[in-house]
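Following up on my earlier thread - several people asked me to post the actual chain instead of describing it. Fair enough. Here it is, all 90 residues.
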Amino acid sequence: MWVSLAALFPCDEPRPYADGWDTQAQVPGELHIWSRSTTGQWIAPVHYRMARGGGSEGMRLTYWGAGARGVTEAGRASTKDPSCWWQSAV
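Reply from S.P.:
Thanks for posting it. Predicted structure:
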């Protein structure tokens, strides 16, 4: 699965900072489980790593996604009902 950091951290007016966190990368992620919230939305914890400029290893983060914004499986666009592709990937 892939996480688009640009979708999670939109930036209208980029101001380059070489040592900052790379919030525009496409990074591998690890999906744990899809669940429904009390409002019926699909939510999921996804672990991913965000790196800093200068080639650092970065930091492991968890994103609790609602409706899978910015998350795709092997290049496939996420859908309104993400359980379809998640179940087939298990």
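The longest helix spans residues 83-89. That should answer part of your original question.
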